[in-house]
Amino acid sequence: MAFDFIGYFAVPFLTVALSRETALFSTNFSSIRTANHRQGEFLVWSFFLLIYLLFCFLPFFYRRSLPRRRKWDGMLLLFLGCGLLLLTSVFTPYLPREEPFLSQIHVYASVWSAVSFFFFLVLAVLPVYFHRQKEGRVLFCLLTAAAAFCASSYLITGIVNSAMEIVYTLTCCTVANRLHLFFSAPSPKRL
Length: 191
What we know:
Structural class: mainly alpha
């Protein structure tokens, strides 16, 4: 119940609230992060999202570590790598004129954290697809629709924009919540 509220209401509300007073297709969350009066709000959103995703995937890692621990160490490393890249992008400024090197690190960390986390979600949805094809197909369709929107938005505008980040965040939270429900439910057949 708490995960449903956080994933379907709290995170979307914070995400949309974070993008207020911005042009959805011409700015992004990096510009919000560099605005002095909005840095605290951005940090709260970032940590709230990271902690939510971590708690969503704890049952996934616990279930997957029981019978074949070594096989799923790669998934844990991928998840931790995504989190490390996201933290790097949160704490490095995007100020291309004042800090060009740190801005490049910020851009690469942001893009690679999103791409690698998307890849992680696709791999995490596979067990759902093999055991509940209807639900797994819906999750794959949701991920595909988000990827199509983000790719087309990037091709049209030429930048990673707030609309992409909102769709990506909401999709990740929805899929993470469904995966949490799937891996939290007791069933010996899911391993």
